[in-house]
């Protein structure tokens, strides 16, 4: 039993180190504690009532205590989720806590190979998938160009001619007078375009004779 607890601490630390690397509040110690605690709960559930099993009319379900870990760990996960403006942060850390709780239960029940495989998978997902996720989010993020053009010389047709096949990626196109009566201020927002593609479009717009300035955001 002590060896199982130590193994749970080790596996929890592997996942916790990845979260600690990113300076999340739920880092190394939190993941270790969750994994060890889940392991102990599983041990209690499996072996803690052996002395009363032989008693007449006593029927025990060793899975009932362990089942409460799955729902009970939610309060820790909720504590790691934050809303910053319009962006939700901490969902991945909450999921990793839930995952190490499952690892602890598996080790407590003696399922060492599944626990090891799950630890490897979780670390691989947290560390290995993140670069692809960030690349995809960067591509899906909205990019805005702010143009200063000669009055009445920029229309949606003119913009479509400059953007070519990427015209379908224009989310918003607004034109309003600027402080200079001879100029218009134009705001164009693109979605599902990489920063490189937006920079290419900005270069084409700058080359147009009626465009005075282009600023990227």
Automatic annotation (TrEMBL):
<protein>
    <recommendedName>
        <fullName>Protein MgtC</fullName>
    </recommendedName>
</protein>
<feature type="transmembrane region" description="Helical">
    <location>
        <begin position="32"/>
        <end position="53"/>
    </location>
</feature>
<keyword id="KW-0812">Transmembrane</keyword>
<dbReference type="InterPro" id="IPR049177">
    <property type="entry name" value="MgtC_SapB_SrpB_YhiD_N"/>
</dbReference>
<feature type="transmembrane region" description="Helical">
    <location>
        <begin position="65"/>
        <end position="85"/>
    </location>
</feature>
<feature type="domain" description="MgtC/SapB/SrpB/YhiD N-terminal">
    <location>
        <begin position="5"/>
        <end position="134"/>
    </location>
</feature>
<keyword id="KW-0472">Membrane</keyword>
<keyword id="KW-0997">Cell inner membrane</keyword>
<keyword id="KW-1003">Cell membrane</keyword>
<dbReference type="Pfam" id="PF02308">
    <property type="entry name" value="MgtC"/>
</dbReference>
<feature type="transmembrane region" description="Helical">
    <location>
        <begin position="97"/>
        <end position="129"/>
    </location>
</feature>
<keyword id="KW-1133">Transmembrane helix</keyword>
<comment type="similarity">
    <text>Belongs to the MgtC/SapB family.</text>
</comment>
<dbReference type="InterPro" id="IPR003416">
    <property type="entry name" value="MgtC/SapB/SrpB/YhiD_fam"/>
</dbReference>
